[in-house]
Design brief:
alpha/beta; 451 residues; binds ligand F0G; 40% helix; seven-stranded mixed β-sheet; 15 helices; Aspartate Aminotransferase, domain 1; Aspartate Aminotransferase, domain 2; 14 strands; three-stranded antiparallel β-sheet; 2 domains
């Protein structure tokens, strides 16, 4: 029998190095949360039992990646590790200009510094928070154009990450020459980790090419998005994952990549393009802020590990396990009464806190209330993606992101059991108020208090 036809989802790896996880008593967790100003970002790692804060930079590297690390070439310019990475990225994406950066937001900052004049507009299915913040810092405007169905958590559709093409047409008319860049975020993290269809990428690409507007992918989770196209979009079932990924990149003029996701590294990113004039501007800014063009703020060993990870993320056995394990998590939560964004996404399960604690109004942060309850109940750390992170958020979500190749099925079973305990207490959970907040990206450092 094909091992994948059995119901049990076996992790497609065995474990060679282990890391202990902390176990805390309820009063210790409570004291930790009070000290952290009820902000889970401010907990210490040793205060968290299962850390689902992010899938970014938290993955386990393979034996092959660790071996590549030892081979890292630390030459300041022209290192072999860069040549290896450059070849892998060119093979996967086809983009002729490949710049390494220390993480995804560095690529966003370079774009914002060099090609987004004040007053310009960037259109995206949904900007990730750092992308939006970098664009706004440049005095430009970030406009989100998600499909309407993305705002209906319980509605199951295969490609809820798509951009609303009618809204794109209207925005192109409304903003005209001010549109400096169109982006698609694959998968659409801020809108529930939902994938974007190839048909949608094609439709966006066609409109941008007709108007000569540069079109970039935020390709942090390019492999997961390609996998969902193969699984869900008619006509792609027999395509290889790299062929699908390549088709996605072929439709765009460039990409930003946080390699901390589908690059399966702890640090790293990329800025790639086929636009020669933009590449030159990017390279000059890179040297100013990140480092020379063949290392971009990274060590040679980081480049080496990234080159291996970018390919490992395209392995169908790994992707099948990734999809099935997130779906298992989603199903388990649903069975114990936790409302979640349907269908299960690629890197996380998103709890619909608005539905779980309807007695808490948006300005009292229902998502934060549920996230804090999961921590108090079982030491689980997720992240609010709602009105605390985005003051005008339409959905009140808690994201439980699953690091790559880190937790096993029993860890997930534990999380589901803890979530069940939170469901029983849902009606008594408090709202929160802001005690102290910074001027932007407030969720990272805000202090809160229960009401
Ligand atoms: N784009 C997307 C879609 C992201 O999810 C992230 C990061 C970035 C860009 C920025 O990349 O962190 O390497 O600078 N997302 C992390 C998360 C932080 O938790 O979802 P970065």
């Amino acid at each position: 029998m094909d091992p994948w036809t059995y119901n049990t989802i076996i992790e497609p790896f065995r474990i060679k190095a282990v890391e202990p996880i902390p176990f805390l008593q309820p009063e210790e967790r409570h004291a930790a949360l009070v000290r952290a100003g009820y902000n889970l970002f401010k907990l210490l790692a040793q205060e968290v039992t299962i850390d689902l804060l992010t899938d970014s930079g938290t993955g386990s590297m393979s034996a092959h990646q660790w071996a590549a690390l030892m081979e890292g070439d630390e030459s300041y310019a022209g290192s072999r590790s860069f040549q290896d990475l450059d070849a892998v990225v060119k093979r996967i994406t086809g983009f002729p200009h490949v710049l390494p950066v220390h993480q995804g937001r560095a690529a966003e900052r370079i774009i914002a510094h060099t090609v987004l004049p004040a007053g310009s507009v960037v259109l995206n299915n949904t900007h990730f928070d750092t992308t939006r913040a970098n664009i706004e810092q440049a005095g430009a405007t970030a406009v989100d154009l998600p499909v309407p169905i993305a705002m209906e958590p319980s509605h199951s559709a295969p490609f809820k990450g798509d951009m609303d093409i009618d809204a794109l047409d209207r925005a192109l008319l409304e903003y005209r020459d001010r549109v400096a860049l169109v982006m698609l975020t694959l998968t659409n993290n801020a809108a529930g980790g939902q994938p974007v269809s190839m048909a949608n990428i094609e439709a966006v690409s066609q409109r941008c090419r007709a108007r000569e507007i540069p079109f970039f992918l935020d390709a942090a989770r390019y492999a997961e998005n390609a996998w969902f196209i193969r699984r869900r979009e008619p006509g792609y079932g027999d395509w290889s994952v790299p062929a699908i990924a390549r088709r996605m990149f072929d439709l765009a003029d460039g990409c930003t990549v946080s390699a901390k996701k589908d690059g399966i590294v702890n640090i790293g990113g990329l800025l790639c393009t086929r636009l020669d004039d933009w590449a030159e501007k990017f390279a000059n800014d890179l040297i100013l802020g990140e480092g020379y063009t063949t290392y971009g703020g990274l060590a040679g060993r980081d480049l080496a590990a990234m080159a291996v990870g970018l390919d490992e993320a395209l392995d169908p056995d790994y992707l099948r396990y990734r999809e099935r394990s997130i779906a298992y998590f989603a199903k388990g939560l649903t069975q114990v009464g936790v409302p979640i964004v349907q269908p299960a996404g690629g890197h996380a399960v998103f709890i619909d806190a608005g539905a779980l604690v309807p007695h808490i109004p948006a300005d009292q942060f229902p998502g934060q209330s549920v996230a804090n309850a999961l921590y108090l109940e079982g030491g689980i750390r997720g992240v609010e993606i709602g009105s605390l992170m985005f003051p005008n958020a339409k959905l009140q979500l808690v994201r439980l992101a699953v690091p790559r190749r880190v937790y096993t099925q029993s860890h997930i079973d534990y999380v589901i059991e803890v979530a069940q305990a939170v469901v029983r207490k849902a009606a008594e959970l408090p709202g929160y108020r802001v005690v102290k907040e910074p001027p932007f990206l407030r969720h990272f450092t805000v202090d809160l208090a229960p009401i």
